[in-house]
Amino acid sequence: MKKLLLMLCFFIGLAACSNGPTQEEVMEKFVSAWNDGDFTLMYTYLSSESKEKIEEETFVERYQSIYKGVEAENLTVEAGTTTEEEGDDTPKPFHVTMDTVAGTISFDGEAEMVQEETDDGQTWRIHWDASFIFPQLNDGQTVQVMSEEPERGNIYDRNDRPLAMQSPVKEAGLVPGKMTEDTASEIAAALEMEEDDITSALEADWVTEETFVPLKKLRPDGKDSEAEEMLEIDGVMIQEASARFYPYKEKAAHLTGYIQEVTAEDLEELPADEYGTGSVVGKAGLESIYEEKLHGSKGWRIYIPESETVIAEKEVEHGEDVKVSIDAAFQENMYDSMQNDAGAGVALDPKTGETLALVSTPSYDPNHFVFGWPRGAFTKASEHPDSPFSARFNNRYSPGSTIKPLTASAALQAGSLHAEEAKTIEGRSWQPNESWGGYKVTRVSDALTRVDLKDALITSDNIYFAQAALDTGSEAFSEGLKRFGFEEEVPYQFPVAPSSIANDELDDEMLLADTGYGQGQMLMSPIHVAAAFTAFINEGDMLEPTLLSQEEPREVWHEQAAPAEHLDVIREGMQGIVENHRGSAYQPVMEQLTIAGKTGTAELKRSQTDENTKENGWFAAYDYEKEDLLMVMMIEGVQDKGGSTYTVEKVKQLFAEWKE
Q1: CA distance 335 to 342
Q2: Is residue 489 located within the same domain as residue 360?
Q3: Which helix (H) or strand (E) holds 587?
Q4: Where is the signal peptide (predicted)?
Q5: Nearest to 439 by CA among 448, 430, 451
Q6: CB 514, CB 412: distance < 8 Å
Q7: Is the alpha carbon torsion for 269, 270, 276, 281 positive or negative?
């Protein structure tokens, strides 16, 4: 009987052992928890010996922290296999792959397993080793991550003049141990900073009595004596540093844009391995458009400081320079001519589409976003009624009479207008019939009663172009304008709102007539107006405007936007606008110029009887002899400045300077 009981116990024990989890099963569960990043569950599979060396809380916190620090993603752990011949004493292989800030890390490892007695019988457990995390890591060692910020690329004009650059600067700061009780207030006044901000900087956890606490970088175009005067304040130290600098200041602000330190909101959108606290990002203009190229890519090093062992490393990639087609000298001249007005200026090379200048006024100094705003200056700019932070060259406005060459093109393409055929127009106002009620189209002068296309362009006859639009009809007229890129995205590096013909459809006669001479609901950006006028220089083909400097920049946006067979009469009309005494751009006379163009006065009326009308003055012009410059300028509020003539004078002067 005793022998029978012993045998029964033996078989029960054998059954218990054979029914327990195998090494492979335990390893698979351990690996599954590892793949899930569940270190708490992983800890339950560790051997008693391993648990004696490290407590659960420490284990979980240590290895979660390491993975978080290296920004481990796409972690994949795979358990290998062993043969029956190798036996239970053979370590179990595994393979680990993960993506980190320093690149992909991949390695093989081995786990030693031991059989231990538990409440549920014997089971297999794993001897933990720190090398499971990284092969180079030993118990008691730490893993650190170090980043290297890339140097931001510069932005250059076509002649390699810097528009935005990394510049050596001086940085003012404090050494707490050398300060006196008056230091904070004195340096606050010198740097135009709030004393509370200086106090906050000094209270940072890392600050010691001997630490240099940076406060503010000094502009490279400031007074040379500025830093020397600050050094007379007890505790002030000046160090060499680097900062973004915009040499053309207000004159190219809307073109270059500016950079700022990232905000919490920015970090939610930007890649975490490239941007962190203290990083900068382009916030507007070219700085924003080419952020990825200019920023470059951070360098990263994952290493063990105790052994100086590098686990993984990604070399820093400095930002690339961006070269644009802008002519900085001409950009400067255009800004100078417009700085006292609210408006926009665009200059293109009409044979290539390259942008030579992009100006918006009023403006701001983008350096203030880098070096700090003088007290009250930001609030003043933010509350300015003319919105100096808003770029105007890519916003939409009523184009006024600058649309008339496009109206002529649409009507000629449709066959509803014949260039040499004269219309009979009597008086200064007109309506097709009494159904219009009191509404009439008016023109500036009734000197001509027989008006052909050339005369209509020279005298900017609203009635002629209203009739041309009506004769063409809503559908054909809209199609003609769409040949010039209306109702579609402008293919340009800068974001530009699509130009619109009307809010909905041109299903109203009065709206169609008004649209024919550039009023109505039509909206167009100065950039698009400039691009549209390239069709009159390129045998009817309209070019894409471009901003990057390229070896072969010329790209056709729309072929035959303007009818090639009728270009001569349109060109002659636009030439007459400038050179004929009846032309709206005749004054001021500058005989050395060889330009053709079209003026426009966009009346922003609430009704036809509105007498307090604000007017925007336009002039789109090009050099018909050299064909090397096309310019569009729009000035707001010219009603008390002579109308579009005010704009014409500025544009003509710029053409004269360009010739020189």
Answers
A1: 11
A2: yes
A3: none
A4: 1-18
A5: 430
A6: no
A7: negative
Q: Are 555 and 534 in contact (CB under 8 A)?
A: no
Cα(319)–Cα(147) distance, rounded to whole angstroms?
Answer: 15
Q: What is the pLDDT of residues 542-597, one digit of tens each?
A: 999 999 998 888 999 999 999 999 999 999 999 999 999 999 999 999 999 999 99
Query: By the 8 A CB rule, do 109 and 94 touch?
Result: yes
Q: Are residues 299 and 409 in the same domain?
A: no
**Closest to 273 in 3D by CA, of 294, 289, 296:** 296
**294 and 275 in a common domain:** yes
Beta-strand pair 103-111/92-100: antiparallel
DSSP reduced 3-state for 99: strand
Same domain, 362 and 502: yes
Residue 145 and residue 301 in contact, taking contact as beta carbons nearer than 8 Å? yes
Structure tokens at 235: 């505790």
Could you tell me whether strands 322-323 and 155-156 are parallel, antiparallel, or unpaired per DSSP bridges? parallel
Position of tokens 């002659």?
A: 572
Name the 3-class secondary structure at 91. coil
The tokens for 438 are: 């009191």
* pLDDT reported for residue 592: 94
Q: Which residues 6+ apart lie within 8 Å of 209 measured at CB?
A: 175, 176, 177
Q: How many residues does the chain have?
A: 660
Given a contact cutoff of 8 angstroms between Cβ atoms, the answer to whether 533 and 632 are in contact is: yes
Place of tokens 């950079």: 259
Q: Which of 47, 401, 525, 584 is catalytic?
A: 401
Task: Give the distance from CA 605 to its chain's centroid.
Answer: 35
The predicted-structure confidence for 83-121, as pLDDT tens digits, reads as follows 766 677 889 999 999 999 999 999 999 999 999 988 878
Q: Which of these three, 141, 175, 210, is where a domain ends? A: 141
Close Cβ partners of 630 (under 8 Å, ≥ 6 residues apart): 347, 348, 349, 350, 530, 533, 534, 537, 620, 621, 622, 623
CA proximity to 92, closest of 56, 124, 67: 124
Whether 401 sits among the annotated catalytic residues: the reply is yes
- Rg of the chain on CA atoms, in Å: 37
Same domain, 479 and 565: yes
Which H helix or E strand runs over 49?
helix 48-53
d(CA 340, CA 344): 12
Q: Is the pLDDT of residue 359 over 60?
A: yes
The answer to whether 544 and 531 have CB atoms below 8 angstroms apart is: yes
The half-sphere exposure of 37 on its side-chain side, counting CA atoms within 13 A, is: 13
- Phi then psi for 260, rounded to 5 degrees? -145, 160
Q: Outline where 141-224 has alpha helix (H).
A: 183-191, 195-202
Own/partner contacts of 201-206, CB < 8 Å, gap of 24 or more, are 201/174, 202/174, 202/176
Tens digit of pLDDT for each residue in 429-445?
A: 999 999 999 999 999 99
Query: Tens digits of per-residue pLDDT, 453-491?
Result: 999 999 999 999 999 999 999 999 999 999 999 999 999
Would you say residue 6 has pLDDT above 60? no
Query: What is the phi/psi pair of residue 459, to 5°?
Result: -95, 0
Tokens 């179990």 -> residue: 92
Residues 367, 368, 370: CA angle, nearest 5 degrees? 65
481 assigned to some structural domain: yes
Residue 101's pLDDT is: 93
- Residue 598: closest CA among 565, 540, 647: 647
Total count of domains within the chain: 3
